[in-house]
């Protein structure tokens, strides 16, 4: 007998609690519990003592006809299911698994807030985190080995960008308020300085690296963008924005395509081969507020932008001038908070972003929780919210590892590692 399809509903499903320490339940059980609890969805005023919030089944506006991944794979093998439908079924299964995500590892190694985060490209349990004081933690949380801690200069040394070297993953690039962009090893040795301002009035705010083109790109607080090759030779240094360049991103599939975000309220798309000055952009995407980030999707076909107030946008490579979707979401800017940046899931069309409740936001309710929100990248619908009452602060940075099964978050001084309950059978670990 074919599996029973869950009933469709247009009403937003209320959010059930996910008690800690219990077995993982089926989607049908979760749906029945949600109906019984009748708790409000995202933005609820109710306080929770659970490890996560789940806004799952009914928020999936287009339900896959396959309730079983095995069945979906079988149908695809027989040629009866298209690849997008199979992907949708896999994504649904992943969303159901988020109900059992908990914090299993945590660290608070810095004396100032964490400011940047990067996963190791080949070790799914290893990440690097930088702080406002210039400290860097290299942490493999699946081993009992002591993490590597690289001491920074303190005040004025904030790590603004962090990337592992794709050509040698025992090295990493950093940009900082110290006024440099450099390559370092795991012992903290500086292997090469790519840019150095020589003054405390000019610093570098972002960086990205391409293995294919073998280039490093970095942006500063004056609107300049610098392109260099891996040997440190400067290819060009141009003022492309009127104000600080908050984010630079190379397209993962077309690494000659560059996106830059700025507090001048624009995101610009560039062809690295044809940059001649500030007017040589391919597209300029105006925003209503300064922009914190612009990230290409893993397939390079879409661009995700996060402003400094309440808007997340998704653009398509087929039509840069017009966003595919606008997501209203509170994540306002605050001087003493690491800027909130939305990111893509590495395998699914999902957007992950921290919530900073705003009383002036249209849907704000009393006692709104500071959750991690997961949106569908196509519909813009809220799919899931993660929350742990022990760590109820504002979570600025969230990024899934390359495998897509573990989430790292930055909340003030804290680094939090979320994983599925079955995958983290050990007790919570703290360093």
UniProtKB/TrEMBL annotation:
WD repeat boundaries on the chain: 238-280
A single GO molecular function term of this UniProt record: damaged DNA binding
Cross-referenced InterPro entries: DDB2, WD40/YVTN_repeat-like_dom_sf, WD40_repeat_CS, WD40_repeat_dom_sf, WD40_rpt
Compartment(s): Chromosome; Nucleus
Positions of the UniProt region annotated as Disordered: 1-31
Matches recorded under Pfam families: WD40 (PF00400)
Pathway membership, UniProt: Protein modification; protein ubiquitination
Gene Ontology terms: biological process: nucleotide-excision repair; protein autoubiquitination; protein polyubiquitination; pyrimidine dimer repair; UV-damage excision repair
Bias (Basic and acidic residues) ranges: 1-14
Keyword DNA damage attributed: yes
CC terms in the record's Gene Ontology section: cell junction; Cul4A-RING E3 ubiquitin ligase complex; Cul4B-RING E3 ubiquitin ligase complex; nucleoplasm; site of DNA damage
PROSITE patterns: WD_REPEATS_1, WD_REPEATS_2, WD_REPEATS_REGION
Keyword vocabulary terms for this entry: Acetylation, Chromosome, DNA damage, DNA repair, DNA-binding, Nucleus, Phosphoprotein, Repeat, Ubl conjugation, Ubl conjugation pathway, WD repeat
Protein family according to the UniProt entry: Belongs to the WD repeat DDB2/WDR76 family.
Protein name per its UniProtKB record: DNA damage-binding protein 2
Record gene name: DDB2
């Amino acid at each position: 007998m074919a599996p029973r399809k869950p009933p469709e509903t247009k009403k937003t499903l209320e959010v059930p609690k996910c008690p800690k320490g219990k077995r993982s339940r089926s989607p049908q059980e979760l749906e029945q519990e949600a109906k019984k609890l009748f708790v409000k969805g995202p933005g609820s005023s109710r306080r929770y003592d659970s490890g996560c919030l789940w806004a799952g089944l009914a928020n999936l506006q287009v339900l896959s006809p396959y309730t079983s991944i095995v069945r979906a794979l079988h149908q695809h093998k027989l040629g009866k299911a298209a690849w997008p439908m199979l992907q949708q079924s896999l994504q649904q299964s992943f969303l159901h698994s988020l109900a059992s995500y908990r914090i299993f590892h945590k660290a608070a190694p810095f004396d100032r807030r964490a400011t940047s985060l990067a996963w190791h490209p080949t070790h799914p349990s290893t990440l690097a985190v930088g702080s406002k004081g210039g400290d860097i933690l290299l942490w493999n949380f699946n081993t009992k080995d002591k993490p590597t801690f690289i001491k920074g200069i303190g005040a004025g040394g904030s790590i603004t960008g962090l990337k592992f070297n794709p050509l040698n993953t025992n090295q990493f690039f950093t940009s900082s308020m110290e006024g440099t962009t450099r390559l370092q090893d795991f012992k903290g040795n500086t292997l090469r300085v790519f840019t150095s301002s020589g003054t405390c009035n000019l610093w570098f705010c972002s960086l990205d690296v391409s293995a294919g083109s073998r280039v490093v790109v970095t942006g500063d607080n004056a609107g300049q963008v610098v392109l260099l090759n891996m040997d440190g030779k400067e290819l060009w240094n141009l003022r492309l924005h009127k104000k600080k360049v908050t984010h630079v991103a190379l397209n993962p599939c077309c690494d000659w395509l560059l996106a830059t975000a700025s507090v001048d309220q624009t995101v610009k798309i560039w062809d690295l081969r044809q940059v001649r000055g500030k007017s040589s952009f391919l597209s300029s995407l105006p925003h209503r507020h300064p922009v914190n980030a612009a990230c290409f999707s893993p397939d390079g076909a879409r661009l995700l932008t996060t402003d400094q107030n309440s808007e997340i946008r998704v653009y398509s490579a087929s039509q840069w001038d017009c966003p595919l979707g606008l997501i209203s979401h509170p994540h306002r800017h605050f001087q003493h908070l690491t800027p909130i940046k939305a990111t893509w899931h590495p395998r699914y069309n999902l957007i992950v972003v921290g919530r900073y409740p705003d009383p002036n936001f249209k849907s704000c309710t009393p006692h709104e929780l500071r959750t991690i929100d997961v949106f569908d990248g196509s519909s813009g619908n809220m799919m899931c919210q993660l929350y742990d009452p022990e760590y109820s602060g504002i979570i600025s940075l969230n990024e899934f590892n390359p495998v897509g099964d573990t989430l790292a978050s930055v909340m003030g001084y804290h680094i939090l590692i979320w994983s599925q309950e079955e995958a983290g059978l050990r007790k919570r670990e703290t360093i």
